[in-house]
Amino acid sequence: MARTTDKTYDLGTHNLRLEQEGPIAWCVIDRPHARNALTPAMYYGIKRAVYLANSEPDLAALIITGTGDVFAPGGDLGGRTEDHESPVGGLGSDVLPFLAVRDSPAPVIAAVNGICQAGGLLIAMMADIAVASERSTFRVPELLRGIPDATYAAALPAHVGMAVARDLLLSARSFDAAEAQRIGLLSRVVAHDDLRSAAVEAATQVLRTAPSARVHVKRMLNERYGPIDYQTMFWALEHSPEPREGMSAFMEKRTPKWVPDQG
In a designed cystine with 132, which of 112, 117, 122, 157 is the match (CB 3.0 to 4.6 A)? Predict the structure, then answer.
C-alpha cells in the first residue's frame, strides 16, 4: 500500500485510487469483485491520472498497478458499470488512456503485479517502463472476443517484431513474465516481493533525465508505432456481430459459434 498524503485526487470512480508518495503518484486499480476488469469510467480515470501527474505541481511521475493477483484483464466484457462512477458515455477513443500513457511528458511506470491482458497489457506496453512480477501472466485475447484491436495491431509489432506479434494476436495464447521479457514486450522482471521498490527505482531513474530532451526522445520513439485504425475497430464494435457473439460466449462460458466443430 502506498503511503498517502493529506491531499486526495478524484478519478471519477472508487475502483481507482490515486495515492501520493513524495513526487510519485500511484494509480491503484482496485475492483476485486470483478477481478479488476476496467469499466469505461475506470479507463477514463487512468487517463485522468496521467493528466494529474502532468499538471499537479507536487507530482512528477505516475506508477500504475493493481491489487491482489491481478494487474488488469482489460475491459469489463459484461458491460457492467457502477452507480458511483462519473458518466463518460461510450467507450470511444477519447476515453481510452493508451495514447495518454504513451505520450505523457511525466514518466509513467507500470508495476505489473499479476494477470495482465487486453487493455491492461496495452497500458503496460505504452508505459515508459513496465516492471513485472515474476508471477505475472499475459495474453492478447481480443480476437477470441471478435474485436479487431487497432492499438495492438499498431503497437505490438514495434515491441516484439512481426512474427511474434502474429503469434500472440492470432493464437491469443497465454505466456509468462520470463517470455514477455525475452521477446521484448517489457524490459524488467523482478521477484514479486520486490515489485514496489523496483517500480519506484524505475520512476526515479527516468526522473534523472532532462525533461525536455526526454519528451523529444519519446516522440521519436513513438514514431516507430504504426497508425492506429480506430475507425475500423469502433465500426466493428458497433456493427459487426462478432464482438457481441464473442462477449456473449465469454460470459456464458461457451465456445463462440465461429469455432469449427472438431467432431
Answer: 112
Q: Which CATH class is domain 16-193+205-252?
A: alpha beta
169 within 8 A of 140, measured Cβ to Cβ: yes
Q: How far is CA 230 from CA 140, 161, 235, in A?
A: 17, 21, 8
Vertex 89, ends 121 and 18: CA angle to 5°? 50
E strands, 30-146, in order:
61-66, 70-72, 108-112, 115-117, 129-133, 137-139
pLDDT given for residue 1 in this prediction: 42
196-248 tens-digit pLDDT? 999 999 999 999 999 999 999 999 999 999 899 999 998 998 999 999 999 89
DSSP-derived letter for residue 261 is P
CA distance 250 to 2: 34
pTM equals: 0.92
Coil vs helix vs strand at 138 = strand
Task: Delimit the domains of the chain by residue range.
Answer: 16-193+205-252
